[in-house]
Amino acid sequence: MKHISILVLKGAILGSLEGSRQLLTEVNKFCQTQGRAPLFQVQLVGLTKETPLSGGLFTVHPDLQLEDIQKTDLVIIPAFDGEIETALAKNRAFIPWIIRQYEAGAEVASLCMGAFILASTGLLNGRNCATHWMAAETFQKMFPKVNLVTERIITDEKGIYSSGGAFSYMNLILYLIEKYAGRNFAILAAKVFAIEIERQNQLSFTIFQGQKDHEDEPVFKAQEFIEQHFQDKITVDQLASMFAMGRRSLERRFKKATANTVSEYIQRVKIEAAKKSFETSRKNINEIMYEVGYSDVKAFRNTFKKITGLSPLEYRNKYNKEVAMV
After folding, report:
1. What topology is assigned to 2-203 in CATH?
2. Which of 38, 172, 265, 326 could form a disulfide with 260 if both were Cys (CB 3.0 to 4.6 A apart)?
3. Which is nearest to 107 in space by CA: 167, 197, 180?
4. Rounded CA gap, 108 and 141, in Å?
5. 118-127, 135-144, 193-202, 243-252: lowest mean pLDDT where?
6. Under a CB-based contact definition with an 8 Å cutoff, are residues 24 and 40 in contact?
């Protein structure tokens, strides 16, 4: 039987904690109906006998406290809410325990914002990690040694797992169920809980908001110009001239401030505008393509799919209510 420890973080989001427990314990029920022994021993593990969650709205009574667990097979770190630095400080006592368990052979999985706890252990350095796309910029600044893959729903690397934003944690739990219990049990759990089992990325859910949490004024003005004139053909040389900077200097400062090259930023702004048009209008693909400043259909489709994970037609059919009802 595999021992699974779900950490009851202070400020944890109840859904990811209880949802994980339900999915895993359901597998034991499947086993019972087949006359088999349960596969998982699932326990909630906290720092105290009572732990407040979700801004104090709920209180959980963990099965065990951290010092009661000498060895486990899988550690699950749920998502948390609230200010990140505060959440890390409140849950810092988990860090050395997680490290010890991993070094003793346990696997570790983070769900959504739980990646911040996992990254704080140092175990992710040099490895891939997913988290909620809204926290990507903060994560990259806090943990530059971690390779953040914002497009991925799941990462799996040397016994360390992570999931993307919000309810995508369910896909990671299904992935672990398939790994530990087999494909049939994973499919059965997906059907019982009505989860789309084969989702591979979270690109289509991402909303590009522009990376403006910096103090480089010329770069900030360049970003604003791009956002106000994205329909036009904008070049790096044009921007450099406007803000009295050399091309290489602008490229370097822009990349440092926004984590994108100028060209990447222009593409992201154009595609975000296209996404909004696909969501709210009945215009065809060519009309929207021209509106956002593309003239080459192939280039537009390739860029759109690279950024969103879907073709323009797939995106419109998925997110435009009027089109979906036809």
Report:
1. Rossmann fold (3.40.50)
2. 265
3. 180
4. 23
5. 193-202
6. yes
Amino acid at 88: L
In order, the DSSP letters of 21-38 are: HHHHHHHHHHHHHTT---
Outline which parts of the chain fall under CATH 1.10.10.60. 217-325
Q: Are the C-beta atoms of 161 and 112 separated by less than 8 Å?
A: no
Whole-Å CA distances, 47 to 7, 52, 65, 121, 212: 9, 11, 5, 17, 37
The strand pairing partners of 4, in sequence order, are 42, 74
Report yes or no: 251 and 266 within 8 Å, Cβ to Cβ: no
Residue 193 pLDDT:
87
217-325, CATH topology level: Arc Repressor Mutant, subunit A (1.10.10)
Indicate if the pLDDT at residue 199 is higher than 80: no
Q: Residue for token digits 């975000």? A: 272
Strands 58-60 vs 51-53: parallel, antiparallel or unpaired: antiparallel
Q: What is the mean pLDDT of residues 36-54?
A: 93
Helix, strand and coil content of the chain, in percent to the nearest 5, comes to 50, 15, 35
